[in-house]
Protein backbone atom coordinates (compact mmCIF):
# COMPACT_ATOMS: atom_id res chain seq x y z
CA UNK A 1 0.00 0.00 0.00
CA UNK A 2 2.74 2.41 1.02
CA UNK A 3 4.74 1.80 -2.17
CA UNK A 4 1.60 2.29 -4.26
CA UNK A 5 1.00 5.67 -2.62
CA UNK A 6 4.63 6.58 -3.23
CA UNK A 7 4.39 5.46 -6.86
CA UNK A 8 1.30 7.59 -7.43
CA UNK A 9 3.05 10.53 -5.85
CA UNK A 10 6.01 10.15 -8.25
CA UNK A 11 3.73 9.81 -11.28
CA UNK A 12 1.69 12.78 -10.08
CA UNK A 13 4.81 14.90 -9.59
CA UNK A 14 6.35 13.94 -12.91
CA UNK A 15 3.23 14.74 -14.86
CA UNK A 16 2.99 18.05 -13.01
CA UNK A 17 -0.44 17.18 -11.74
CA UNK A 18 -1.66 18.37 -8.40
CA UNK A 19 -2.77 15.59 -6.08
CA UNK A 20 -6.02 16.10 -4.18
CA UNK A 21 -6.65 16.65 -1.39
CA UNK A 22 -3.52 18.77 -0.93
CA UNK A 23 -1.61 17.09 1.93
CA UNK A 24 -1.62 19.11 5.15
CA UNK A 25 1.96 20.25 5.69
CA UNK A 26 3.75 19.15 8.86
CA UNK A 27 6.62 21.21 10.29
CA UNK A 28 9.78 20.07 12.09
CA UNK A 29 8.80 22.13 15.11
CA UNK A 30 6.14 24.58 16.21
CA UNK A 31 7.17 28.16 15.39
CA UNK A 32 6.95 30.86 18.08
CA UNK A 33 3.74 32.87 18.01
CA UNK A 34 4.12 36.50 16.92
CA UNK A 35 3.48 38.84 19.88
CA UNK A 36 0.88 40.63 17.72
CA UNK A 37 -1.40 37.64 18.35
CA UNK A 38 -2.98 38.12 21.75
CA UNK A 39 -5.48 35.64 23.13
CA UNK A 40 -8.66 37.05 24.58
CA UNK A 41 -9.00 33.84 26.59
CA UNK A 42 -5.82 32.05 27.70
CA UNK A 43 -5.12 28.77 25.90
CA UNK A 44 -5.33 25.63 28.03
CA UNK A 45 -5.39 27.40 31.42
CA UNK A 46 -5.59 24.20 33.48
CA UNK A 47 -3.13 22.14 31.43
CA UNK A 48 0.51 21.50 32.32
CA UNK A 49 2.52 24.58 31.20
CA UNK A 50 4.95 22.29 29.34
CA UNK A 51 2.20 20.12 27.87
CA UNK A 52 3.30 17.07 29.86
CA UNK A 53 0.91 14.12 30.05
CA UNK A 54 1.05 11.93 33.19
CA UNK A 55 2.50 8.43 32.72
CA UNK A 56 0.11 5.60 33.55
CA UNK A 57 1.08 2.24 34.99
CA UNK A 58 1.35 -0.17 32.04
CA UNK A 59 -1.19 -2.59 33.55
CA UNK A 60 -3.75 0.13 34.38
CA UNK A 61 -7.12 0.04 32.62
CA UNK A 62 -8.04 3.37 31.09
CA UNK A 63 -11.60 4.17 30.02
CA UNK A 64 -11.94 6.22 26.84
CA UNK A 65 -14.81 8.73 26.55
CA UNK A 66 -16.23 10.51 23.53
CA UNK A 67 -16.94 14.13 24.50
CA UNK A 68 -18.94 16.69 22.57
CA UNK A 69 -20.52 20.02 23.48
CA UNK A 70 -21.98 22.96 21.54
CA UNK A 71 -19.60 25.89 21.12
CA UNK A 72 -20.79 28.05 24.02
CA UNK A 73 -22.00 30.96 21.91
CA UNK A 74 -24.33 28.54 20.18
CA UNK A 75 -25.52 27.14 23.45
CA UNK A 76 -26.63 30.45 24.92
CA UNK A 77 -26.88 32.82 21.96
CA UNK A 78 -29.81 33.19 19.61
CA UNK A 79 -27.98 31.04 17.05
CA UNK A 80 -28.90 28.00 19.18
CA UNK A 81 -30.50 25.37 17.01
CA UNK A 82 -29.72 27.15 13.73
CA UNK A 83 -26.29 25.56 13.45
CA UNK A 84 -24.86 22.50 15.15
CA UNK A 85 -21.43 23.91 15.86
CA UNK A 86 -19.95 21.32 18.18
CA UNK A 87 -16.61 21.03 19.89
CA UNK A 88 -15.11 17.55 20.21
CA UNK A 89 -12.72 16.09 22.75
CA UNK A 90 -11.58 12.76 24.23
CA UNK A 91 -11.73 11.81 27.91
CA UNK A 92 -9.69 9.23 29.84
CA UNK A 93 -10.28 7.67 33.25
CA UNK A 94 -7.75 5.56 35.19
CA UNK A 95 -9.17 2.54 37.01
CA UNK A 96 -6.08 2.37 39.25
CA UNK A 97 -6.08 5.96 40.54
CA UNK A 98 -9.64 7.13 39.80
CA UNK A 99 -8.16 10.23 38.17
CA UNK A 100 -9.65 11.35 34.90
CA UNK A 101 -8.47 13.66 32.11
CA UNK A 102 -9.69 15.65 29.12
CA UNK A 103 -7.79 16.01 25.86
CA UNK A 104 -8.77 18.44 23.12
CA UNK A 105 -7.25 20.38 20.23
CA UNK A 106 -8.32 23.94 19.55
CA UNK A 107 -7.37 27.42 18.36
CA UNK A 108 -4.86 29.48 20.36
CA UNK A 109 -6.70 32.68 19.35
CA UNK A 110 -10.24 31.45 18.67
CA UNK A 111 -11.93 30.45 15.45
CA UNK A 112 -12.28 33.91 13.87
CA UNK A 113 -8.51 34.38 13.95
CA UNK A 114 -7.95 30.96 12.35
CA UNK A 115 -10.45 31.65 9.59
CA UNK A 116 -9.57 35.20 8.52
CA UNK A 117 -6.37 37.26 8.69
CA UNK A 118 -5.63 40.73 10.06
CA UNK A 119 -4.65 43.84 8.15
CA UNK A 120 -1.53 45.38 9.66
CA UNK A 121 -0.19 48.71 8.47
CA UNK A 122 3.41 47.56 8.97
CA UNK A 123 3.08 44.22 7.14
CA UNK A 124 2.31 43.95 3.44
CA UNK A 125 0.78 40.45 3.55
CA UNK A 126 -2.41 39.51 5.41
CA UNK A 127 -1.39 38.50 8.91
CA UNK A 128 -2.60 35.24 10.43
CA UNK A 129 -2.94 34.23 14.10
CA UNK A 130 -3.95 30.71 13.12
CA UNK A 131 -2.14 28.22 15.33
CA UNK A 132 -4.06 25.49 17.09
CA UNK A 133 -2.74 23.00 19.64
CA UNK A 134 -3.50 20.06 21.90
CA UNK A 135 -4.55 20.69 25.47
CA UNK A 136 -4.43 17.92 28.08
CA UNK A 137 -5.70 18.57 31.60
CA UNK A 138 -6.91 16.72 34.65
CA UNK A 139 -10.63 16.28 35.20
CA UNK A 140 -13.74 15.69 33.12
CA UNK A 141 -16.50 18.23 33.69
CA UNK A 142 -19.41 15.82 33.29
CA UNK A 143 -22.16 18.47 33.28
CA UNK A 144 -20.38 20.58 30.65
CA UNK A 145 -20.24 17.68 28.20
CA UNK A 146 -23.48 15.87 29.09
CA UNK A 147 -25.94 18.75 28.86
CA UNK A 148 -26.79 19.40 25.21
CA UNK A 149 -23.79 17.29 24.24
CA UNK A 150 -22.29 13.83 24.65
CA UNK A 151 -20.33 11.98 27.30
CA UNK A 152 -20.08 8.35 26.30
CA UNK A 153 -17.63 5.62 27.21
CA UNK A 154 -16.44 4.07 23.93
CA UNK A 155 -13.80 1.61 25.11
CA UNK A 156 -10.95 0.66 27.41
CA UNK A 157 -7.20 0.69 26.77
CA UNK A 158 -4.20 -0.40 28.83
CA UNK A 159 -1.95 2.11 30.56
CA UNK A 160 0.75 1.02 28.13
CA UNK A 161 -1.38 1.95 25.10
CA UNK A 162 -2.27 5.25 26.76
CA UNK A 163 1.44 6.07 27.24
CA UNK A 164 2.14 5.25 23.58
CA UNK A 165 -0.71 7.51 22.54
CA UNK A 166 0.61 10.31 24.80
CA UNK A 167 3.99 10.21 22.99
CA UNK A 168 2.18 10.42 19.67
CA UNK A 169 0.10 13.42 20.88
CA UNK A 170 3.29 15.32 21.80
CA UNK A 171 4.73 14.68 18.36
CA UNK A 172 1.47 15.49 16.55
CA UNK A 173 1.24 18.71 18.57
CA UNK A 174 4.73 19.83 17.52
CA UNK A 175 4.35 19.11 13.81
CA UNK A 176 0.72 19.97 12.97
CA UNK A 177 0.35 23.55 14.14
CA UNK A 178 -2.03 25.51 11.89
CA UNK A 179 -5.78 25.36 12.35
CA UNK A 180 -7.83 24.99 9.17
CA UNK A 181 -11.54 25.74 9.43
CA UNK A 182 -12.71 24.81 5.94
CA UNK A 183 -13.11 21.57 4.07
CA UNK A 184 -13.10 22.40 0.34
CA UNK A 185 -14.95 20.07 -2.03
CA UNK A 186 -15.93 19.99 -5.69
CA UNK A 187 -19.65 19.64 -4.86
CA UNK A 188 -22.05 18.44 -2.20
CA UNK A 189 -22.47 14.89 -3.59
CA UNK A 190 -21.18 11.74 -1.94
CA UNK A 191 -18.37 11.12 -4.44
CA UNK A 192 -17.17 14.71 -4.73
CA UNK A 193 -13.42 15.43 -4.91
CA UNK A 194 -11.99 16.85 -1.69
CA UNK A 195 -9.54 19.63 -2.57
CA UNK A 196 -8.55 20.45 1.02
CA UNK A 197 -9.27 18.73 4.33
CA UNK A 198 -9.91 20.80 7.47
CA UNK A 199 -7.54 20.58 10.45
CA UNK A 200 -9.59 21.20 13.58
CA UNK A 201 -10.75 19.73 16.88
CA UNK A 202 -12.73 16.90 15.29
CA UNK A 203 -9.85 15.93 12.97
CA UNK A 204 -7.65 15.62 16.06
CA UNK A 205 -10.24 13.36 17.68
CA UNK A 206 -10.37 11.21 14.52
CA UNK A 207 -6.55 11.00 14.40
CA UNK A 208 -6.51 9.96 18.06
CA UNK A 209 -9.11 7.22 17.49
CA UNK A 210 -7.12 5.97 14.48
CA UNK A 211 -3.91 5.97 16.52
CA UNK A 212 -5.61 4.00 19.32
CA UNK A 213 -7.00 1.55 16.76
CA UNK A 214 -3.47 1.11 15.35
CA UNK A 215 -2.29 0.33 18.88
CA UNK A 216 -4.89 -2.43 19.14
CA UNK A 217 -7.74 -0.63 20.90
CA UNK A 218 -11.37 -1.45 20.15
CA UNK A 219 -13.74 1.50 20.26
CA UNK A 220 -17.47 1.48 19.69
CA UNK A 221 -20.33 3.88 20.18
CA UNK A 222 -23.97 3.10 21.01
CA UNK A 223 -25.13 6.26 19.25
CA UNK A 224 -24.31 7.70 15.80
CA UNK A 225 -21.25 9.95 15.92
CA UNK A 226 -21.89 13.32 14.29
CA UNK A 227 -19.32 16.05 13.62
CA UNK A 228 -19.50 19.66 12.47
CA UNK A 229 -17.98 20.33 9.04
CA UNK A 230 -17.66 23.78 7.47
CA UNK A 231 -17.56 23.47 3.68
CA UNK A 232 -16.61 25.56 0.70
CA UNK A 233 -17.61 24.26 -2.75
CA UNK A 234 -15.46 25.10 -5.75
CA UNK A 235 -14.09 23.98 -9.10
CA UNK A 236 -10.43 22.93 -9.27
CA UNK A 237 -8.37 25.31 -7.08
CA UNK A 238 -5.57 27.37 -8.65
CA UNK A 239 -2.31 27.68 -6.72
CA UNK A 240 -1.22 31.31 -6.32
CA UNK A 241 1.82 31.28 -4.01
CA UNK A 242 2.96 32.41 -0.59
CA UNK A 243 3.51 35.83 1.02
CA UNK A 244 5.87 36.75 -1.80
CA UNK A 245 2.67 37.67 -3.74
CA UNK A 246 2.55 40.78 -1.55
CA UNK A 247 6.19 41.71 -2.11
CA UNK A 248 6.67 41.36 -5.87
CA UNK A 249 5.60 44.07 -8.27
CA UNK A 250 4.56 41.45 -10.86
CA UNK A 251 1.73 40.24 -8.60
CA UNK A 252 0.60 43.67 -7.39
CA UNK A 253 -2.93 43.39 -8.79
CA UNK A 254 -3.41 39.92 -7.34
CA UNK A 255 -2.14 41.18 -3.97
CA UNK A 256 -4.67 44.03 -4.04
CA UNK A 257 -7.46 41.64 -4.96
CA UNK A 258 -6.66 39.22 -2.13
CA UNK A 259 -6.48 42.04 0.41
CA UNK A 260 -9.76 43.48 -0.82
CA UNK A 261 -11.34 40.06 -0.45
CA UNK A 262 -10.19 39.59 3.13
CA UNK A 263 -11.13 43.14 4.09
CA UNK A 264 -14.80 42.11 4.18
CA UNK A 265 -13.93 39.11 6.37
CA UNK A 266 -11.89 40.90 9.05
CA UNK A 267 -11.24 38.72 12.09
CA UNK A 268 -13.87 39.11 14.73
CA UNK A 269 -13.81 38.90 18.46
CA UNK A 270 -16.77 36.58 18.71
CA UNK A 271 -17.62 33.50 16.74
CA UNK A 272 -21.21 34.65 16.27
CA UNK A 273 -20.01 37.93 14.74
CA UNK A 274 -17.86 35.87 12.42
CA UNK A 275 -20.73 33.69 11.28
CA UNK A 276 -22.88 36.79 10.77
CA UNK A 277 -20.20 38.41 8.65
CA UNK A 278 -19.83 35.14 6.80
CA UNK A 279 -23.50 35.14 5.91
CA UNK A 280 -23.18 38.76 4.70
CA UNK A 281 -20.11 37.88 2.71
CA UNK A 282 -21.93 34.90 1.26
CA UNK A 283 -23.63 37.27 -1.17
CA UNK A 284 -20.27 38.58 -2.28
CA UNK A 285 -18.95 35.06 -2.84
CA UNK A 286 -22.06 34.15 -4.84
CA UNK A 287 -21.75 37.30 -6.92
CA UNK A 288 -18.02 37.18 -7.60
CA UNK A 289 -17.63 33.39 -7.41
CA UNK A 290 -14.11 33.69 -6.02
CA UNK A 291 -12.72 32.76 -2.64
CA UNK A 292 -9.07 33.31 -1.75
CA UNK A 293 -8.12 30.34 0.38
CA UNK A 294 -5.12 29.99 2.68
CA UNK A 295 -3.62 26.52 3.31
CA UNK A 296 -0.09 25.42 4.29
CA UNK A 297 0.81 29.15 4.43
CA UNK A 298 0.03 29.55 0.73
CA UNK A 299 -2.83 31.15 -1.19
CA UNK A 300 -5.17 29.41 -3.61
CA UNK A 301 -7.94 30.79 -5.78
CA UNK A 302 -11.21 28.88 -5.51
CA UNK A 303 -13.66 29.21 -8.41
CA UNK A 304 -16.75 28.96 -6.18
CA UNK A 305 -19.74 26.85 -7.13
CA UNK A 306 -23.25 26.32 -5.81
CA UNK A 307 -24.00 25.76 -2.87
CA UNK A 308 -20.86 27.83 -2.08
CA UNK A 309 -20.73 27.58 1.72
CA UNK A 310 -22.35 25.06 4.02
CA UNK A 311 -22.19 24.13 7.69
CA UNK A 312 -23.21 20.54 8.26
CA UNK A 313 -23.48 18.16 11.17
CA UNK A 314 -22.80 14.79 9.60
CA UNK A 315 -22.19 11.24 10.69
CA UNK A 316 -18.59 10.03 10.60
CA UNK A 317 -18.43 6.54 12.17
CA UNK A 318 -15.66 5.52 14.56
CA UNK A 319 -12.74 3.88 12.72
C1 LIG B 1 -7.57 37.57 17.59
O1 LIG B 1 -6.31 38.14 17.33
C2 LIG B 1 -6.25 39.51 17.65
C3 LIG B 1 -4.88 40.01 17.22
O2 LIG B 1 -3.90 39.47 18.00
C4 LIG B 1 -6.46 39.72 19.14
O3 LIG B 1 -6.47 41.10 19.44
C5 LIG B 1 -7.79 39.10 19.55
O4 LIG B 1 -7.93 39.15 20.95
C6 LIG B 1 -7.87 37.67 19.07
N1 LIG B 1 -9.19 37.18 19.34
C7 LIG B 1 -9.45 36.27 20.26
C8 LIG B 1 -10.89 35.93 20.45
O5 LIG B 1 -8.57 35.71 20.90
C1 LIG C 1 0.76 21.68 22.50
O1 LIG C 1 1.41 22.88 22.10
C2 LIG C 1 0.94 24.03 22.79
C3 LIG C 1 1.62 25.24 22.16
O2 LIG C 1 2.98 25.16 22.24
C4 LIG C 1 1.23 23.88 24.28
O3 LIG C 1 0.74 25.00 24.97
C5 LIG C 1 0.56 22.62 24.80
O4 LIG C 1 0.87 22.41 26.15
C6 LIG C 1 0.97 21.41 23.99
N1 LIG C 1 0.14 20.28 24.40
C7 LIG C 1 0.60 19.05 24.59
C8 LIG C 1 -0.37 18.02 25.06
O5 LIG C 1 1.77 18.75 24.36
C1 LIG D 1 -14.16 12.49 36.51
O1 LIG D 1 -13.76 12.71 37.85
C2 LIG D 1 -14.65 13.55 38.59
C3 LIG D 1 -14.03 13.79 39.95
O2 LIG D 1 -13.74 12.58 40.57
C4 LIG D 1 -16.02 12.91 38.68
O3 LIG D 1 -16.92 13.79 39.34
C5 LIG D 1 -16.54 12.65 37.27
O4 LIG D 1 -17.77 11.97 37.34
C6 LIG D 1 -15.54 11.83 36.47
N1 LIG D 1 -16.03 11.74 35.10
C7 LIG D 1 -15.96 10.63 34.38
C8 LIG D 1 -16.56 10.69 33.00
O5 LIG D 1 -15.43 9.61 34.77
C1 LIG E 1 -28.69 23.43 27.19
O1 LIG E 1 -29.55 24.09 26.25
C2 LIG E 1 -30.61 24.82 26.85
C3 LIG E 1 -31.45 25.40 25.75
O2 LIG E 1 -31.96 24.37 24.95
C4 LIG E 1 -30.04 25.92 27.74
O3 LIG E 1 -31.09 26.65 28.34
C5 LIG E 1 -29.16 25.29 28.80
O4 LIG E 1 -28.58 26.30 29.58
C6 LIG E 1 -28.09 24.43 28.16
N1 LIG E 1 -27.33 23.76 29.23
C7 LIG E 1 -26.00 23.82 29.30
C8 LIG E 1 -25.37 23.18 30.48
O5 LIG E 1 -25.34 24.37 28.49
C1 LIG F 1 -20.47 9.91 -8.82
O1 LIG F 1 -19.73 10.29 -9.94
C2 LIG F 1 -20.23 9.85 -11.19
C3 LIG F 1 -19.27 10.25 -12.31
O2 LIG F 1 -18.15 10.90 -11.84
C4 LIG F 1 -21.61 10.41 -11.42
O3 LIG F 1 -22.12 9.97 -12.64
C5 LIG F 1 -22.51 10.00 -10.27
O4 LIG F 1 -23.78 10.59 -10.41
C6 LIG F 1 -21.92 10.38 -8.92
N1 LIG F 1 -22.70 9.82 -7.85
C7 LIG F 1 -23.24 10.58 -6.90
C8 LIG F 1 -23.97 9.88 -5.79
O5 LIG F 1 -23.15 11.78 -6.88
C1 LIG G 1 7.68 31.61 -1.23
O1 LIG G 1 7.62 31.27 -2.61
C2 LIG G 1 8.77 31.64 -3.33
C3 LIG G 1 8.47 31.43 -4.80
O2 LIG G 1 7.87 30.20 -5.05
C4 LIG G 1 9.97 30.82 -2.82
O3 LIG G 1 11.14 31.15 -3.53
C5 LIG G 1 10.15 31.14 -1.33
O4 LIG G 1 11.16 30.32 -0.79
C6 LIG G 1 8.86 30.91 -0.56
N1 LIG G 1 9.02 31.44 0.79
C7 LIG G 1 8.70 30.76 1.88
C8 LIG G 1 8.88 31.45 3.18
O5 LIG G 1 8.29 29.61 1.81
What is this structure's SSE topology?
Layout: H1 2-14, E1 61-70, H2 72-76, E2 86-94, E3 100-107, H3 110-115, E4 132-138, H4 142-146, E5 150-158, H5 159-175, E6 182-185, E7 194-196, H6 201-214, E8 226-234, E9 238-241, H7 252-263, H8 271-288, E10 290-295, E11 298-315
Parallel strand pairs: 6-8
Antiparallel strand pairs: 1-2, 1-5, 2-3, 3-4, 6-7, 8-11, 9-11, 10-11
Bound molecules: 2-acetamido-2-deoxy-beta-D-glucopyranose (6 copies).
Low-confidence spans: 1-14
Helix and strand run: HEHEEHEHEHEEHEEHHEE
**Annotation field: number of helices:** 8
The residue fraction in helices comes out at 25-40%
Shape: globular
Structural summary, described in words:
With 319 residues, this protein is of the alpha+beta class. It has one domain (55-315). It has eight helices and eleven strands. The protein has helices at 2-14, 72-76, 110-115, 142-146, 159-175, 201-214, 252-263, 271-288; strands at residues 61-70, 86-94, 100-107, 132-138, 150-158, 182-185, 194-196, 226-234, 238-241, 290-295, 298-315. Strands 6, 7, 8, 9, 10 and 11 form a six-stranded mixed β-sheet that branches. A hairpin with an 8-residue loop joins strand 6 and strand 7. It is globular, with a radius of gyration of 21 Å. One 2-acetamido-2-deoxy-beta-D-glucopyranose binds at residues 189-191.
Amino acid sequence: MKSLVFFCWIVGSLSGQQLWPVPYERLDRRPDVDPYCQALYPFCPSGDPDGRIPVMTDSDIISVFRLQTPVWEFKYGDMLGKFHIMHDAVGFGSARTGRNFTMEWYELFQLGNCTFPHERASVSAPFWCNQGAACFYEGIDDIHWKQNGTLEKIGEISGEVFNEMARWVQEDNKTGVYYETWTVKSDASANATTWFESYDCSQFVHRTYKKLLGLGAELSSQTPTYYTKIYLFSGEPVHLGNDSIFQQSSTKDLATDIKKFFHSFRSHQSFVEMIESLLEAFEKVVLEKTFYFYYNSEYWKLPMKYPYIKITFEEIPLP
